[in-house]
Write a structure and sequence with these properties.
The structure is a homotrimer of 317-residue chains. Chain A is α/β, with parallel strands linked by helices and 317 residues long. Helix content of chain A is 36%, strand content 14%. Chain A contains 13 helices and 10 strands. In chain A, helix 2 crosses helix 13 and helix 7 crosses helix 13. Chains in contact: A-B, A-C, B-C.
Chain lengths: 317, 317, 317
């Protein structure tokens, strides 16, 4: 593996999950692996879980960590080739990526979708520019279209909590006041397609995800139908893909309630967080024993640690 | 000790002071105690001394440190139970505290008073919410009503500099252009009540501190009378408590001057810093040999280090 | 050496360059030198290279690092003696510098020129105030008039790439949309004066640098003439010194092009970065094999590491 930009970087997903669970048993077992190695984390957007869990993961491996909020602490970057830089942007990605690569051994980047220009978002301009011009491995800490550290943590969590060989996993859209990206949903769907699960996607009409990702999967537009006998309910809001970045509905009838959860097979509730209570999911569900959102967030550390450990492999003799 | 939220967490104050002074002699004597342990510092407000001294204290103990400015780097938090989160706040404290607890071993938090709503400030919403939902020890890096790391450093400093068994310690209000919280004054008064000192409080009428803290202490409204024969003058501005958060006076006659210091028993000047020169205290006093504000700030490291060391105790075998 | 404020702190420049190149061969050879030592980096301005390379340099030496963005994370500082601090500034440099000195072993500071008041910029108020009131060594991470870490990296880079005993080095002004400081150009000129090079400075009339720095050097106002047979072309924009801080020209004819580079002796292109492409230097030049701007940025780590190593010397037994 050269980079961890998408879950396609994972060769044997079940083996990865097993390795991550091994790391969780003793997070410091490889603490000399990262000695003299530095992770540089560049944030173009806010972050809580990713910021802290990735940092913790690196430290567990004995790495040094440098964290930089690009917008406020550095220079505005230009990503277009051939542009005449006579306005606000002070540095080109060509220099920035090549230079930063010299100060660290692994580079982790968060750069959200604009939600205004689908083509540009799908081109993954920031992430792919770093990939192109950096000389060290890149880790995606959520890009315009993918959040593969989250998806790996999700798969680990489902493995930990599943009670049947092939659980029913429902990905349910839920209402939100703001337009949100598709990254988490995209990576979750791709990850579930690699797992032995019965994946059902439910959302209002108009909220169909990128068909290149959902492929031939049919959508269950009736949320209650979808929830029936579910072992896991994975909740997430996203904006429209077709009507790119638009909020078509804030219909509260799509909020996740205890009543709906009772349709499931004592199903576990998952969400990547942050979650808006009583808008996306009601208190009673988040506060119930079936919510595993905190355990899911905990697995972010071990997902990141496994990815960093694998990328450090290139530096081993 | 489960948390360090207030100085009531201190069991034997004189023993703590002695231990802190022992740490000061050789700050690295416990440098293996914090190995594999992580301190996460969350700031909801600016900080210089607390930010750097607490970080240094943790590193002296061999800990890893993660620093996060919550406002700019993360998500806006909701603290109210049962609220419908359909506006600006993206994450509830319930999730944030539980999640962050999983990425660290000790959580330190700075969250100032609003000074607009006394009841809310006294409820210590931020600090107590973290206490309620976090699963690791919490350290108060200045909350709405208390600054116990500062008060411990103050007590250490007085022990170092006192020349008599029972020194006279004057807490003097001084003018300031802005409305300031009561946290430092509160914790100082509580700490002095535990010490063998003659504590005298002086301030203009209307600036009485919370009577639940000052208890039956009388106030000396004549500053010059208060200063007579003082061994220590502890200077601090605060806004009105009764007329909550209001600036009732900027009377320059209350500024600390050399002339007033000459009324003391060659008294030492203390201030928690930052201090506005020639507004709160005149240059001549701050620049005199009797100012110990820099030494006092130095003790912040050892106060924090002792608190962290004690909290790390729970992880020892 | 007590501080590293300017390149005048360097005693034997060639020996420093040799030592830095030795560090580059094995950056971790002194990794126990900085154990229990802390570098505190204070930024009053944005930074990418300096932020990351200096941090990396310190970690290579085994030091702990604390990074603080003064403006957003701390208090606004007052630098004037005797001022009445009744407005926005909460803390005086006297306290800030003395206090921070107690939490670290070396203090590094970035504080750019105002470009509005030449006298004040030349007084180096921020840097010199820290020097005056701090009790630990100070490292200049670019001040109003000097960038000595950059100049040391520049000298290292020229030593690495030069093919003749006494190369011709051209410092060329180039156009830029904004008014930029003189710090980089100043330190580069001073550094070249210490080297066995033929230094030629070229810029439009009105852009003469501080004569106290350029001394009796004549200026070549014809850029193409200047470029003839150059072994190195060092590109930098700066605002007018005489007409202090003003942009007198954005003349695109001064942009660095391949055509101009062909006048050189297969000359290497240098720039401190960030660089605005197709405004300061055209793509073809930056993307050519003769551009060594990335290698130059890499040497920032070893320049900083050497400076820190020398300053740590004071703590050795």
């Amino acid at each position: 593996m050269k980079h961890y930009l998408d879950i396609t970087a994972i060769d044997h997903v079940q083996s990865w999950i097993d390795q991550a669970l091994q790391l969780k048993v003793d997070p410091f077992q490889f603490e000399s692996l990262g000695k003299k190695r530095t992770l540089c984390m560049l944030f173009f957007n806010p972050s809580l879980r990713t910021r802290l869990s990735t940092q913790k993961a690196a430290m567990n491996l004995g790495m040094q960590v440098m964290v930089m909020n690009f917008g406020s602490e550095g220079w505005q970057l230009e990503f277009e080739d051939g542009s005449i830089m006579d306005a606000g942007k002070a540095e080109h990605i060509k220099e920035a990526a090549a230079v930063v690569s010299q100060y660290c051994d692994i580079l982790a980047i968060r750069a959200f979708a604009s939600l205004t220009d689908r083509e540009q978002d799908e081109a993954e301009l920031v992430l792919n520019s770093f990939k192109k011009y950096a000389t060290v491995p890149i880790v995606n800490m959520e890009s315009a279209t993918a959040h593969p550290l989250q998806a790996l943590a999700d798969a680990i969590t489902i493995t930990e909590f599943k009670k049947v060989e092939r659980p029913k996993v429902v990905l349910s859209w839920a209402p939100h006041p703001k337009a949100l990206p598709h990254a988490v949903a995209n990576s979750f769907v791709k990850m579930m397609q690699l797992q032995n699960v019965n994946l059902v996607i439910t959302h209002p009409e108009g909220y169909e995800l990128d068909p290149a990702i959902t492929k031939d999967m049919s959508v269950e537009y009736d949320q209650q139908n979808a929830f029936k006998d579910a072992d896991f309910v994975y909740v997430k809001n996203w904006s429209s893909y077709k009507n790119y970045g638009k909020v078509l509905s804030k219909d509260k009838n799509w909020m996740i309630t205890q009543q709906k959860m009772q349709l499931t097979n004592n199903g576990k509730l998952m969400h990547c967080l942050p979650v808006r209570r009583n808008m996306v999911i009601e208190d009673a569900v988040l506060d119930s024993d079936n919510s595993i959102v905190i355990e899911q967030a905990n697995n972010r550390t071990f997902a990141a640690q496994l990815v960093l450990k694998k990328l450090l492999g290139r530096y081993e003799n």
